[in-house]
Structures are given as C-alpha cells and as structure tokens.
Amino acid sequence: MKQKLYQQITERKKLGRKSFSVLIDPDKVDVAKTDKLIRLATDAKVDYFFVGGSLVISNNVDECISQIKSSCNIPVLLFPGAPSQVSKYADAILYLSLISGRNPELLIGQHVISAPLVKYSGLEVIPTGYMVIDGGAPTTVSYISNAAPIPADKNDIAMCTAIAGELLGLKLIFMDAGSGAKTPVTEEMIQKVSSHIDVPLITGGGITHPEKAYLNCKAGADILVVGNAIEKDASLIRELSDAIHSVSIEVV
User: pTM for the complete prediction?
Assistant: First the structure.
C-alpha cells in the first residue's frame, strides 16, 4: 500500500513544520472559483487541498480534482462525507472513522461496504480518527452523522478519544468543529490532545482569522484546514498560510 503522502505528513511533524490545507467543497465551487483558489493557493505555498464535504450532492468531484491536478502540484486528499465517496484522480483518501460518536454506520458500517472500492481505487489510504467537536452551532456533519459532538470544554474526553483512536491503529486524528462553527476547537483542547498522541493532528472548523490559525498550530495542530472562511474571502489564503508557516519557522 502506498504511503507517500502519509510519510511526508509524519516527516513534517517530526521537523516541527506546520501544514496548511485548503478545503474545497465541490458543491460550492465552479471552474472559475476553483481556478482562482488554485492560483491563490499556489502563490501562498499551500501544502494540501482537501476535497469533499458532509453532503456532496453534485457530480463534479472528479472534475474538480482533475482541474486541480492539471493546474498545480499541490497534493489532493479526499475528505469524504462517506467512505464510498471516492475519486481515482486524487492522491489519497482520508478514510474517516467517526470515533467521537456512537453511530456504528460511520464507525465501521459504511467502511465494510466501501472497502473493496477503496482498496482497489489506487489511492493512498490514510486511516483517520475523525472527532467532531461542538462549535457552538448545529453543523451539517453533526446532522448527517446523527451523533452528538464532544463538548468544547471536555478536554479529557477529547484526549481519551484521540488516544483510543491511535491505539486502534488510526494514522491521523482530525478534530473538527464543523463548517460554519461559531467557535473553533480551543487551544487548550488541542494542546491536551497533541501532548498525548504521537500521530499527526489535524484541526479545522470555525477558523476565520490568521491569529487563530497561528495559535492552533502553536498549541499542537500539525495540519490546519480552512474552508468556509476561504469560500467567503479567498484572499485570506495568503494571510492564513503565512501565519501557519511562521510557526514552522519558529520551531525549526
């Protein structure tokens, strides 16, 4: 099984280098918007594109990823709302298991159904423990998953959940407050989780300012994902990238 991107992610973590991923929801972009995002991301030295969403209702996932791949060298990772949302044009798939909830379908059920498709897709498969954190507002992921998020102030629950995911063999932990969250994951929770796991930590949801991105990385996030704020103002890409990568410069 290919491990090229995962090795890159873990190497960056070992070196203390933080990464920035722009999240693209195929339902919310067209060719022109995607082209603009690609140009801004390339100029800002964005590290990854995550493509997907909790509710993908359009049929342009392949087209969106193909457009990115033909225009730049930034790796594309699928961030699927369901394990069966697969595109052969991506570089890798975050094979998400919703470890923060108690919905068996998103913990293992849908994975059983999608496993042959994913295994033979040719994609690099990165098993990822997905943790939904309460962001102060109802989100699509909470509704679709039919699972209660971890309360924003329950740092110990988040820590124990992340440790359990790592012990079960998951290669990444992704803490997400969800698209449109009023409040992002706190620095305290990020610090608590990151200090007790060895695998790379991804955080996202509700990040609208470079300062918050900087603080999340300082607290221990290895990859920061921003989507909703960039959909509203794509020019934020440069400021967010500079803030995130400045933490890398300080650590190294």
Answer: 0.94
